[in-house]
Amino acid sequence: MSLPDQAEAVAAGVDRFPPRRLMTREHAERLSREILELKRELNAIILAHNYQVPEIQDVADFVGDSLGLSQQAARTGADVIVFCGVHFMAETAKILNPNKLVVLPDKDAGCSLEESCPADKLRELQKTNPNYHTIAYINCSAEVKALSDVICTSGNAVKIVEAAPKDNDLLFVPDENLGAWVMEQTGRPMTLWRGNCYAHVEFRRESLLRLRESFPEAKVVVHPESLREVRDLADAVCSTEKMITYCKTSAAKQFVIVTESGIIHRMQKECPGKQFICAPTFDVMRMPTDNCRCSECRFMKLNTLEKLRDCMKRLAPRIELPEDILQRARLPIERMLEISAR
Ligand code: 13P
Ligand code: SF4
Predict the structure, then answer these.
(1) Which residues have a Cβ under 8 Å from the Cβ of 205 and sit 6 or more positions away?
(2) Quick one: pLDDT at residue 8?
(3) Which CATH architecture has domain 205-296?
(4) How far apart are CA 157 and CA 85, in angstroms?
(5) What is the pLDDT of residue 280?
(6) So what's the pLDDT on residue 10?
(7) CA of 20 to the centre of ligand 1 (A)
(8) In this predicted structure, what is the pLDDT of residue 9?
(9) How far apart are CA 157 and CA 281, in angstroms?
(10) How many angstroms does the Cα of residue 253 sit away from the middle of ligand 1?
C-alpha cells in the first residue's frame, strides 16, 4: 500500500465553519459566571488548549499544549472533564479517564491531521512491515492510537523518538512536517505518513522574510508542524507551551509567532512589555493587497463561550468510546507519559 496523498485527506469545507460572532463584555461576563457556577455544581475541571478564544482561556482551570493537557487529564480528581480544544484531545482525556464524563463544546471540532490518517489505511501499511514501531503524534483518532506503540506530542516528540527501540523501523504518523523535524533533531530515519496541519502549512518563507524586514530585532518562534522552509528561518522551533516559556525567558522584546493566533492571549498576559507579531498565512509577494491575515485553526475556533456553557448544562456532546479501543489506546499514551517524566 502506498502512503495516502494529503491533498485527498484535508476535506473540510469553508461552509462548515461560519464566521465567529463577537460578544459584548457584559454578555461574556454573564456567561463566565454561569460556567463557574456549573463547574462547582458538577465538580468539573475545564481544560483549554492554547489556541482557544481568550474568553474560554480565562474561565479554564488549566490552559496549555497537548502534553500539558494530557498530564492534567491523567491526574485530575474532578468528576467531569470539560475539554475546550479539538476532538482528539477530549478523546485522549477520556482514554485516561474511562470512568469520568468528558464533554466538549462542539463535537465537530476535528483536525486535518486526524482526518488524514484513517485507522484502516494505517493497519494496511503496518501489515507491509512487521518490524515497524509506530509512533503516533497525539493529533490522531483513538482508533489510530490503539494501533500505535507509543504516542508523542510536539513537546516531547524528540524524546519519544530517541527512546524508541534501536532494532525497529520507525513509522511516524500522521504529521510529515513534525516527523521531518524530529528526524533532523534525532538523526533517526523514519517512514513518514503524508499528513499535515492545513493551518500551519499556510505559513511561507517569502512572507516571513518580508515580515522580518519590518521587525529585524524580533525572534522568530515556529511550531514544528510548519514547513521546513519556514522552520529554517526560526530562532526556536517548539510546542505551543515551550513557545510561551521561550518568550518569557528570552531577553528579546519582539517575537514573530508562527502558529495559531489564539496563543497570543497568553503571551500578552504572561510577558508584559513584550510585543508579539502573528506571522501572516499567505505569500505577500503574490498577494500584496491582503496584508492582515493571522492564522486561525477553524476547528479550534468552533468552540465558543456559549457552547461551553451549553455543554456543561446538557452534559453533551460527550465522548464515548468502545471498551476495546479505550483499553488498547491507553497503553501507548501511558508509555508516552512515562517516557516524558524521565
Ligand atoms: P501543541 O501540543 O504544541 O499545543 O500543538 C497542538 C496542535 O494542534 C498544534 O496545531
Ligand atoms: Fe489540527 Fe492544525 Fe488545528 Fe492543530 S492547528 S488542531 S494540527 S488542524
Answers:
(1) 227, 229, 230, 232, 233
(2) 40
(3) 3-Layer(aba) Sandwich (3.40)
(4) 20
(5) 87
(6) 36
(7) 21
(8) 35
(9) 25
(10) 24
- Return the DSSP state at 318: B
Closest ligand 1 atom, CA of 113? 8
pLDDT for the residue numbered 289? 47
Note whether 152 and 175 are within 8 A (CB). no
Q: How far is the CA of 327 from the centre of ligand 1 (A)?
A: 24
C-alpha cell at 248: 518569557
Residue type, 17: F
CATH topology of domain 9-111+301-314: Rossmann fold (3.40.50)
Report the alpha-carbon distance of residue 95 to residue 267 in Å, rounded.
30
Domain ranges of the chain: 9-111+301-314, 113-198+323-340, 205-296
Name residues of the chain where pLDDT drops below 50: 1-15, 284, 288-290
Q: Is the CB of 113 under 6 A from ligand 2?
A: yes
Residue with cell 463544546: 105
Burial group, residue 341, by CB count within 10 angstroms (0-12, 13-18, 19+): exposed
What is the per-residue pLDDT for 281?
80
Asked if residue 254 lies in contact with residue 221, where contact means CB atoms within 8 angstroms, the answer is: no
Say what the pLDDT of residue 38 is.
98
What is the structure's pLDDT at 18?
60
Residue-level pLDDT at 294: 77
3-state secondary structure of 330: helix
CATH architecture of the domain 113-198+323-340 equals 3-Layer(aba) Sandwich (3.40)
Beta-bridge partner residues of 185:
none
CA distance 227 to 285: 18
Residue type, 322: P
